[in-house]
Amino acid sequence: MNGLRPLVVDLHCHLLPSLDDGPRDWEEAVRLAAEAWASGTQVLVCTPHDMAGAYANPPERVTAQLRELRRRLEAAGVPLALRAGNEVYLEDESLDRLRAGQLNFLGSEPGAPGGDPGASRRGHHRYLLVELPVGQWPLNAEELLYELRVAGVTPVLAHVERYEELRAAPERLGRLVEAGCRAQVNAGTFAGREGTRLQRQAMEWLRAGWVHFLGSDAHGGGRRTSAMAEGRSWIARQRGGARLLEQIDRNAAALLAGQAVPAPA
Fold first, then answer.
1. Domains of the chain and any CATH numbers
2. DSSP single-letter state for residue 86
């Protein structure tokens, strides 16, 4: 993939304080970052929630917090690389916020252009981490995901293993991937934190080519802590796991470089 060096990337993490339900303060954020680096993560994408009526985290706000955390990590001697993003709750207003430049593309550098569809250079792929209701799949979900793709954005479905609709009908996830979406699974699921049944189902999806990225979805405060190392270790022990991890790492490197993440052959 254009000679990109694979990296261990946590694509979904709530690490920035004072933006959502992540760390309580800077000290906790630095501690979590140091733990992530020590466990093997090289790049961490900060994805604070963006949800109408609850959290609004536009580029300028996320940029300010991310730059401050970079400064604190440098002072603490933690060489973890940080990128910006949002976990966008998918709703009608999401498209308006995208067009207004009020959303952070996944893996973006602070200060990069916001959500203006005309801001990207030719051939540059843009990704948006999107979340849906866990218990009830919205009737217009496919329509909204299609509208994002029309706007020039590749939707990355956050923690797909958590959605009851996709667990009950996995072929629906396959159709979404074929239509141009990409998918992320929480590393803790592969580590067995959600039970062996879901662990095995996530592995089946990974083998099918329906899972493209890993993320910790860590929040701090002891809630949903990172399991990147545990999850990767479990995958590596499964049949074909080493090859699948290599593909996940290539996918993450491609996303960070603004390149296309391929669908399964």
1. 9-256 (3.20.20.140)
2. -
